[in-house]
Amino acid sequence: MRKNVTSVRQLATILMAGIMAVSCSKEEAETQDVATETEVITIAELKTADESEFLAEELMNIAEDSYAEDEISTFSKFNYRSDYLPDCVTVTTVVTDTTKERTLDFGEGCELPNGNILSGLLVLTYEKDMDVAQKTIKLSLEDFTFNGVAVEGGADILRMRSNGNGNPQATATVSFDATWPNGDVTSLNGSRTREWIEGFGSGFWGDNVFLITGKRTFTAKSGAVFEKEIIVPLRRETACRFAVSGVLTISRRGNMASLDFGDGNCDAKGVLTLPNGDVQEVSLRRFLKND
Questions:
Q1: Domain tally, the chain
Q2: Left, alpha or beta for 109 (phi > 0: left; psi -120 to 50: alpha)?
Q3: Residue 249: in which H helix or E strand, if any?
Q4: Taking a C-beta distance cutoff of 8 angstroms, is the pair 247, 258 a contact?
Q5: Is residue 28 part of a domain?
Q6: 148 Cβ contact partners less than 8 Å away, ≥ 6 residues apart
Q7: 107 dihedral zone (left: phi>0; alpha: psi -120 to 50; beta)
Q8: Which residues, 6 or more positions from 1, have their beta carbon under 8 angstroms from its beta carbon?
Q9: I need a labelling partner for 86 at 20 to 30 A (CA). Which of 30, 50, 67, 120 fits?
Q10: Where does residue 148 fall: left (phi above 0), alpha (psi -120 to 50 degrees), or beta otherwise?
Q11: Do residues 65 and 81 make contact, with C-beta atoms less than 8 angstroms apart?
Q12: pTM across the whole model
């Protein structure tokens, strides 16, 4: 009889331990769910978002450089040519009574001086009159890929020949959808202003420097939406794949993190400050293999 009582007590102890284990696991899961809800962005999402920004900025570099060729040639006594577009790009210009259409054909794969490989068509359409101090340049893409990423969409670029600082300036409102080689789909929407502060008209792509401000929305493959706003202008030197300085904020579900790109050095490092004040150094990617 005593053995039976002992067995019942042991069974009760085992059941109680099981219930407590299940309860603890549930509490841990709930805690993890809360942490996920309050998390702003994962490192993987941060890297993809930054690559998407890099992709968009490179398209703006091409657009501005191509337009500058036309503009500078118009106002100078010689036929100006930049070295940013290599011979593998075929440029075709169609002129009407009021517009110009410049089609940049990258073929099946054309490598730019900075190592990016593009294919397909990038088309720029703008007003023919080059004396106009401000105009809109429409950018569209056809069967376009950037380093193996299929890109659809376009941009409206409000171009000023000279801003208050005497520099060319372009405000690009973009809407791009990107399909990555593994099938992931992301999107980037919003407006950024680029002030061309160094290198304009030199003909050498590597000395171009831009200051960038503005706000965009990035949608990750998961469907999560992030608001990204530059609070300290980003300095982008085209000879570097990364912004070398500046700060942007990343917001989601009312929570905000910030990403500091550094003090001017060209490197893949950034400092991410989380909503709780924790700070960590992150390594960005931008299509580099050693991330």
A1: 1
A2: left
A3: strand 243-252
A4: yes
A5: no
A6: 117, 180, 181
A7: left
A8: none
A9: 50
A10: left
A11: no
A12: 0.83
Residue listed under structure tokens 């993190």: 257
Indicate the SS3 state at residue 12.
helix
Distance of CA 46 to the CA centre of its chain: 10
Residue 82 has what pLDDT? 86
166 Ramachandran zone, left/alpha/beta (phi>0; psi -120 to 50): left
Which of 69, 114, 107, 71 shows the shortest CA–CA distance to 90?
Answer: 107
Report how far apart, in Å, the C-alpha atoms of 86 and of each of 16, 134, 141, 209 are. 73, 28, 19, 20
CA dihedral 80, 84, 86, 92 (to 10 degrees): -60
Considering only residues 12 and 143, tell me which one the structure prediction assigns the higher pLDDT. 143
Checking if the pLDDT of 113 tops 60, the result is yes
Report CA Rg, the chain. 26
3-state DSSP assignment of residue 158: strand
Can you give the residue range of the structural domain that contains 196?
41-218
Q: Name the β-bridge partners of 138.
A: 125, 156
Query: Could you tell me if residue 68 is inside a domain?
Result: yes
Query: What confidence score (pLDDT) does residue 173 get?
Result: 98
Q: Return d(Cα 151, Cα 187) in angstroms, integer.
A: 9
Is 274 inside a domain boundary? no
Residue carrying the six token digits 């890297």: 47
> Residues 103-109: what's their mean pLDDT?
97
Terminal CA-to-CA distance of the chain, rounded, Å? 68
